[in-house]
Design brief:
four-stranded mixed β-sheet; Signal transduction protein with CBS domains; Diverse_CBS-Domain; CBS-domain; three-stranded mixed β-sheet
C-alpha cells in the first residue's frame, strides 16, 4: 500500500507572500495546527501555530506586515507518495518530525501525513480487534 492510503488528501496551504495574520486566520478557520507553504504547487515550507507564537508574537513582530516566508520552516522534508507506511514511520522517527507533506513523482503536493493520523488509525484498528474479541467471548 502506498502512503496515499494513509495520508490526508486535503492539505491546507498558503503562499510565501501571505501575511502571518492571514495564515493565522486560515489556521483558525480550518482548525489545523500547520500550513504547507507552496510555490508552483510544490511545498517550500511549513508554518505551524508554534512558529507564529515563537517567531512572530514572542519576537514582537507585526503579523499584519510579516510575510509567511520570513518565519516559516523552509525546505521541509517531504515523503514520496509511493513510500509504504513503515518506511514513512521510519523517516518520521529518524527526523523527529510529526508532519510531512506528501509529493508525487514530480514534487507536486499530493497529501499530508501526520503522526496524529497514524495514531488515530491504530486506535480504529485496536477498537475493531476489541469488538472481534468481545463477539467471540462466551
Amino acid at each position: 500500500m502506498s502512503l496515499l492510503n494513509f495520508a490526508r488528501e486535503e492539505v491546507v496551504t498558503t503562499g510565501l507572500r501571505a501575511s502571518v495574520l492571514e495564515a493565522a486566520e486560515l489556521l483558525r478557520a480550518r482548525n489545523v495546527g500547520c500550513l504547507v507553504v507552496v510555490e508552483g504547487g510544490k511545498p517550500c515550507g511549513i508554518l505551524t501555530d508554534r512558529d507564529i507564537a515563537l517567531r512572530v508574537v514572542a519576537a514582537g513582530r507585526d503579523p499584519k506586515t510579516t510575510a509567511v516566508e520570513e518565519v516559516m520552516t523552509p525546505r521541509p522534508t517531504v515523503l514520496e507518495e509511493e513510500l509504504g507506511l513503515f518506511e514513512a514511520l521510519e523517516i518520521m522517527k529518524d527526523r523527529g518530525v510529526r508532519r510531512f507533506p506528501v509529493v508525487d513523482r514530480y514534487g507536486q503536493l499530493s497529501g499530508f501525513f501526520t503522526l496524529d493520523d497514524v495514531l488515530y488509525l491504530i486506535g480504529l484498528e485496536l477498537s475493531a480487534v476489541a469488538r472481534i474479541i468481545d463477539q467471540g467471548t462466551p
